Amino acid sequence: MPPINMKKLYILRHGQTLFNQKEMVQGQCDSRLTDLGIRQSDAAGQYFKDQNIRFDSVYTSDLPRTEETLEQFYTGPHERRKGFRERSYGVYEGDSNLSLINIMANAKNAYGVLGIETDDSLVKRMKETLEEVMDQPGNDTVLVVSHGDIMRTFADWVDEKKMSEYGFMPNCAIFEYDYDEKTKTFDLIGVIDQHVADIKAETIWKNFKKNEE
């Protein structure tokens, strides 16, 4: 049996949105799910059902696309948390992804300029919000519906080596963690995406790597 202080956390990326489809920078603005995004959300729900995974508590960010994703497969109560919202991309929100890629490729420290939220800020609020919900009594298995960049950045912070082996993260990918309530540490078990293997959306982000300089 796992240690008594160990809890299970699943973080689900939202389904494809209109901005994702049009390859626009979304960040903290919002757009509705596409038909593909709805199918991806359904597939995520079916995965949890097939694996007999039941949640003690469910959370979303405060951006509507995460709630719309959740509503495709879950009818129980949930809570919205601002700490789970996507990175702010400042003046680039609503622009094309290519514009953001260009600034990230050419600026030595792209994050933190022109209103783009830094990795440190992203990890800090994600960690604090996750600890808050995971430390609640009875929250032994928790689902959070969040966003691609904050999920990937937090996972890099938890286990950069493991994440370096994982490529493009599709909509409705699931990150599985163990959480040790005693030490307040997260262990990245793996990234689950087989449920959307046949319904991934190719984008220009697939071969993009953030400038590490």
From TrEMBL:
GO terms for molecular function: fructose-2,6-bisphosphate 2-phosphatase activity. Substrate binds at residues 13-20, 65, 86-89. The active site is at residues 14, 86. PANTHER family: FRUCTOSE-2,6-BISPHOSPHATASE TIGAR (PTHR46517). GO terms for biological process: negative regulation of glycolytic process; regulation of pentose-phosphate shunt. This is Histidine phosphatase family protein. It comes from the Bacteria. It comes from Ileibacterium valens. GO terms for cellular component: cytosol. InterPro entries: His_Pase_superF_clade-1, His_PPase_superfam, PG/BPGM_mutase_AS, Phosphoglycerate_Mutase. Keywords: Hydrolase.
